[in-house]
Design brief:
Elements: E1 2-8, H1 21-30, E2 34-39, E3 44-49, H2 53-68, E4 74-78, H3 79-88, E5 99-103, E6 123-126, E7 130-134, E8 153-156, H4 157-167
Antiparallel strand pairs: 1-3, 1-4, 2-3, 5-7, 5-8, 6-7
Helix pairs in contact: 3-4
Length: 170
């Protein structure tokens, strides 16, 4: 069995994509995932599966499509990949509440940061399959737009750390 972390895009954020975590947990169980545990109401779920990451993603996205009648993006990482994101955070000295990892399905292009707009004091660094951003004044006040992150989903480092903790349970 592989321990996975799935991150849903645009669920229970700003009044859109309402999904009770009990429903998400049921969807995962119905997909055959084991030891399912959700974390906060923003679409974070940890579980075990024998399936490959692409099959896990497809199974969850199919169930979400049926539930919402529209596609919902899902980013899947193994427990060890999630721990690697936490360890790779280039802004370790900054507050984890204001430091985000944008999770992408594939690696960002080398020019991804050059195409960002609205940048003022934010700091950005490309990751393996994502982008790290430190928002000193908070993400909600920022005008920063990163086109490469549009199809991904972001989590602050507090959430990443908690998901790593949950995923590391034996």
């Amino acid at each position: 069995m592989i321990r996975y972390v799935a991150l849903l895009r645009a669920v229970n954020v700003g009044g859109t994509g309402k999904l009770a975590m009990t429903e998400l947990k049921s969807m995962c169980s119905d997909a055959g995932f084991a030891r399912v545990e959700t974390y906060i109401a923003s679409g974070n779920v940890v579980f075990d599966s024998k399936a490959a990451p692409a099959k896990v993603k497809a199974a969850l996205e199919a169930r979400l499509l049926k539930h919402f009648d529209k596609p919902v993006g899902v980013v899947v990482r193994t427990a060890s990949q999630m721990a690697a994101v936490l360890a790779a955070n280039p802004f370790q000295k900054a507050g984890p509440k204001h430091t985000y990892a944008f999770f992408l399905d594939g690696g960002p292009r080398g020019d991804s940061l050059d195409k960002a707009t609205g940048r003022t004091i934010e700091k950005m660094v490309l990751g393996d399959r994502g982008i790290f951003v430190h928002y000193p004044d908070g993400m909600g006040r920022s005008k920063l737009r990163i086109p490469a992150a549009r199809m991904g989903t972001a989590r602050n480092m507090n959430t990443v750390a908690r998901l790593v903790e949950i995923a590391s349970k034996a």
